[in-house]
Write a sequence for this structure.
């Protein structure tokens, strides 16, 4: 039971007033719950965790909830509980009197359909990115199957620009997913007056972040970046610059889709089902493989730079794609046709996710990236030509054994984007091309 912070100021104040007789008769107020921090002038300040409190109040059979104005919209998402907003202690006392007399004002109402239908437009769009058609395709495949992706390219090639546009092609949030995400942001104190979180989050922590900042922590555990990115994207720019111990704590959340934080007082589990997107240079100077700039790194330095990312972590990244420098013609030619906008790509992603939802109906798997080996064998069968192609790729290009299942899952996603149930050899060939770090010249 959480007993920290100033969120109990309002109920303590109302309790003192009731004990003094200032609230009059208090019969019939047993199903009224209040929460809020009091400032010295009597105004109510917002608190964390209003949405989880409202959900718990509904479970306990409490009918009325009095909250600060900044938290009321967030709690009104919960049906079955009448939420009232109060700006001050005096306003809360008046609400209590009205509830006792049966003359309370109309509670706040939440229009679920209207809020989820009118999603605020994004400020960025895939159409703004010049060139990089192969990388855009890789991002589309990653979004369609919820695959983790690593972008490798020289400085200025557009890695960060592309990654920031990932949320614009992900499917819209459904109500239950939005509710779960809002609970996490509410505990972290990030909702404010906005109420329900309707956009998929995009979290991009700096490479100096600590273990606790990434996965959560504190005396009273609070969610970290992996949980704040739930149902969205966690973007790690300059991946090799992160402390190795920080990157290693990602392994368990990537595998289990949740993170458990244990402290002496309690153990808390937060959901952490996110899509990992990361970016890195191919070497320390950034120009290995660039046709226009000379790389000054030795092969040993390149190997050491890549080895900052452990094999077990790379094993959980399905797609590695090279991001070459953009050619001058693609940047300057105004007559060149613009690429697809995010809406067109998103429509294909939504259709592919729909096929996966039907395929995995009744299980705890929601996307191709989450398939365990049992489902991979069932849903990722190849014809003889596809098997020969995959065998040749693993033998001739030096692909590792750990890439086998990843290639099958990505191939399944590519087939879903095409609307096909069978996986064709060209789908396998494209998936093999998405394994840059497994090729022989890296190892």
């Amino acid at each position: 039971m959480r007993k920290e912070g100033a969120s109990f100021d309002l109920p303590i104040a109302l309790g003192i007033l009731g004990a003094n007789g200032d609230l009059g008769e208090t019969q019939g107020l047993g199903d009224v719950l209040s929460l809020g921090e009091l400032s010295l002038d009597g105004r109510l300040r917002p608190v964390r965790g209003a949405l989880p409190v409202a959900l718990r109040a509904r479970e306990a059979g409490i009918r009325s909830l009095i909250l600060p104005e900044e938290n009321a919209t967030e709690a009104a998402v919960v049906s079955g509980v009448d939420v009232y907003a109060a700006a001050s202690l005096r306003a809360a006392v008046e609400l209590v009197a009205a509830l006792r007399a049966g003359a309370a004002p109309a509670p706040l109402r939440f229009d679920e359909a209207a809020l989820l239908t009118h999603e605020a437009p994004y400020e960025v769009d895939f159409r703004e990115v010049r060139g990089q058609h192969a990388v855009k395709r890789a991002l589309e495949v990653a979004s369609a199957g919820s695959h983790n992706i690593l972008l490798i390219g020289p400085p200025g090639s557009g890695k960060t620009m592309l990654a920031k546009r990932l949320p614009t092609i992900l499917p819209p949030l459904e109500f239950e997913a939005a509710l779960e995400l809002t609970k996490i942001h509410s505990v972290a104190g990030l909702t404010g007056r906005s109420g329900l979180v309707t956009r998929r989050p995009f979290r991009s922590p700096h490479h100096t972040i600590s273990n606790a900042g990434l996965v959560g922590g504190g005396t009273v555990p609070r969610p970290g970046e992996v949980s704040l990115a739930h149902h969205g994207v966690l973007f790690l720019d300059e991946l090799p610059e992160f402390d190795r111990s920080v990157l290693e704590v990602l392994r368990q959340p990537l595998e289990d889709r949740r993170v458990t934080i244990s402290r002496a007082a309690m153990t808390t589990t937060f959901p952490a089902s996110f899509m990992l997107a990361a970016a890195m240079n191919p070497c320390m100077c950034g120009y290995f493989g660039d046709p226009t700039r000379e790389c000054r790194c030795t092969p040993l330095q390149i190997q050491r730079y890549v080895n900052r990312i452990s094999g077990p972590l790379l094993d959980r990244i399905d797609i590695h794609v090279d991001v070459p420098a953009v050619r001058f013609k693609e940047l300057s030619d105004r007559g060149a046709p613009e690429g697809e906008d995010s809406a067109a790509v998103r429509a294909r992603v939504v259709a592919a996710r729909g096929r996966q939802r039907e395929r995995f109906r009744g299980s705890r798997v929601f996307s191709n990236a989450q398939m365990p080996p049992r489902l991979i064998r069932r849903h990722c069968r190849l014809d003889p030509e596809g098997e020969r192609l995959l065998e040749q790729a693993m033998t001739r290009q030096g692909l590792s054994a750990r890439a086998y299942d990843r290639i099958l899952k990505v191939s399944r996603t590519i087939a879903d984007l095409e609307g096909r149930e069978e996986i064709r050899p060209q789908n396998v060939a494209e998936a093999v091309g998405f394994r840059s770090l497994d090729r022989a010249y890296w190892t």
